[in-house]
Design goal:
The complex is a heterodimer of chains A (51) and B (472).
Chain A lengths: L3 H6 L10 H7 L5 H19 L1
Chain B lengths: L23 H22 L3 H14 L4 H13 L3 H14 L6 H9 L2 H22 L3 H14 L4 H13 L3 H14 L4 H14 L18 E6 L2 E6 L6 H100 L4 H18 L5 H31 L3 H14 L4 H13 L3 H14 L4 H16 L1
Antiparallel strand pairs in B: 1-2
Classes of the chains: A mainly alpha (51), B mainly alpha (472).
């Protein structure tokens, strides 16, 4: 049985057109490739520091 | 594919041929991103938009620079009515690849048409307002608002779902199902849609998949067994012997039920119909009676009006008759004039016509025209002495012959047409005296004394008056 109140909580207000710019700026665009590059760079810097 | 470190194009090797960086893991990440993109594309092709969004988001998690995946994600968002989300993806895509990017066309499509942009904005605002109404328990207002939203943007899945949820809350299952079916047409595999639809279907068909109907008892199992000697007799219950009686019994019950239905159901209905028919007839007759009464009243009114008009016409007729009388007088005057012109010596004929005119004028009491009066007076002036003479001669002749009955009117007329004829007046007085009408005789004698004083006739009249006075 569907609980109306619970289901209603799943609906959120839509972003209006004026808010689109802010939403774009706030979007986290970090991807797996970024993480990998970061990890690789960190590991390389560690190696350099050890040597 | 380019190297994440130096930006050079990568070869099939697991290292960059330019900077020597290890790109094996990087390549795998890119491949995974592409695989998710392909999956998303396939799902979008079969209208599994929810699945497509998940796959494309995964693709972008692995490679944010996957412009195709981002553009497709924007398109899928746009299809589900999430226009702002779509615009966001396309703008980011355009920033990542400023040239030769289809996102440009998509953005232009929306931004160049101001009207369309306004509608999009209105739709979102109304949807948010509807959501606010829901949270404020103004569910009726929310339904109205959502209907407006869907009239502006029929592909807005979240609005359809919210409306369906409201219908479910109101237990309007059919309407909820209609909304959910529209969602399914747009996005075939939306989890929320499917969940709501399942609930609605269960409510619409609550017994489906439920308990099995109770099995019928096999009549053939119902038998009567009894022992006859050494044999066991098995007799089924549905034997033919009882069929006739049962049939008659059923027939009787059927007839009773039929009669009961007729008495309790059909008859009251018929009675009701008959009463309704009678009421209808009564109403119609009453209406007709009212109409006739109204007609009678109207006709009575007309009769009164006609009577009044008739009276008026009678009055007019009287006036007309008066006019006719006038015409008769004129006719008589014309005859008199004609008689005078044709036979001037026959003055008595003219005199008859003139007397007739006088009589008619006295009877009708009408006023004649000036021309009429002039002609009449002229004729009277021309013929008066001649007429007087003629009447006097006749009257005097009759007087001499002692025919006083004829003498009196002729002498009266003679004096009438000639007031200077004292002889006529004297003989008239004598004629009255002779026939014994002494009052009239006395009056005429007095008239002679008054009109002709100092004459022989006056002295004779005085003598007669003395004589009459002496007799008294």
């Amino acid at each position: 049985m569907i609980n109306f109140e619970e289901e209603l909580k799943k609906f959120h207000p839509s972003l209006e057109v004026e808010d689109a710019e802010e939403a774009i700026y706030n979007q986290d665009l970090t991807d797996m490739a970024d993480l990998m590059v970061k990890i690789v760079k960190e590991s390389e810097s560690k190696k350099t520091g050890v040597e | 594919m380019i190297c994440y470190q130096c930006g050079c194009n990568l070869s099939e090797h697991d290292f960059c041929t330019s900077c020597g960086a290890d790109v094996a893991l990087y390549k795998k990440i890119i491949y995974i991103s592409n695989r998710f993109y392909n999956e998303g594309l396939e799902r979008a092709n079969v209208r599994d938009l929810t699945g497509a969004i998940i796959s494309l988001r995964q693709s972008l998690k692995f490679n944010k620079n996957n412009v195709e995946a981002r553009n497709l994600l924007g398109l899928v968002y746009f299809e589900t009515g999430e226009v702002v989300a779509a615009l966001s993806e396309w703008v980011i895509s355009k920033n990542l690849r400023p040239k030769k990017n289809i996102a440009d066309d998509y953005i232009d499509m929306i931004q160049t048409n101001q009207n369309r942009l306004d509608i999009i904005n209105q739709t979102i605002k109304k949807y948010n307002q509807a959501l606010t109404y829901c949270n404020q328990d103004s569910l009726d207002l929310a339904v109205i608002q959502l209907k407006k939203v869907l009239s502006l943007n029929p592909r807005f899945i979240r609005a359809h779902q919210l409306l369906a949820l409201l219908y479910i809350n109101n237990e309007e299952w059919e309407k909820a199902k209609r909304e959910l079916m529209k969602c399914i047409e747009i996005d075939t595999n939306n989890i929320a849609t499917l969940r709501y639809l399942k609930e609605v279907d269960e409510m619409l068909l609550p017994e489906e998949g439920g308990k099995n109907p109770p099995k019928k008892r096999h009549k053939s199992d119902e038998v009567i067994k009894y022992q006859s000697g050494n044999e066991t007799i098995i007799q089924p219950v549905n034997v033919k012997e009882g069929k006739g009686v049962t049939s008659l019994l059923n027939l009787g019950i059927g007839i009773i039920i039929g009669v009961a239905i007729a008495v309790f159901l059909i008859l009251p209905a018929r009675v009701q119909m008959a009463r309704a028919s009678i009421d209808e007839d009564l109403r119609r007759v009453s209406e007709q009676s009212d109409a006739k009464s109204a007609t009678i009243d109207e006709q009575l009114l007309q009769i009164n009006e006609l009577t009044e008009e008739n009276d008026n016409l009678q009055k007019d007729l009287q006036a007309y008759l008066g006019t006719d009388g006038t015409l008769k007088s004129v006719d008589s005057l014309m005859k008199a004039a004609n008689a005078y012109l044709t036979e001037p010596e026959e003055v008595t004929v003219v005199a008859d016509y003139l007397e007739e005119i006088e009589r008619q004028s006295e009877e009708e009491e009408t006023s004649n025209s000036e021309a009429f009066e002039n002609l009449y007076n002229t004729l009277l002036a021309l013929l008066g002495p001649s007429i007087a003479e003629a009447y006097y001669n006749d009257g005097y002749e009759a007087y001499r012959q002692e025919n006083y009955e004829d003498a009196i009117p002729n002498l009266e007329k003679a004096f009438k047409y000639d007031a200077t004829n004292g002889e006529a007046l004297y003989n008239l007085a004598n004629a009255y005296y002779r026939v014994g009408e002494e009052d009239k005789a006395r009056t005429v004698y007095l008239q002679i004394i008054e009109l002709f004083p100092g004459t022989e006739k006056a002295s004779k009249s005085e003598a007669f008056l003395e004589e009459m006075g002496g007799e008294d």
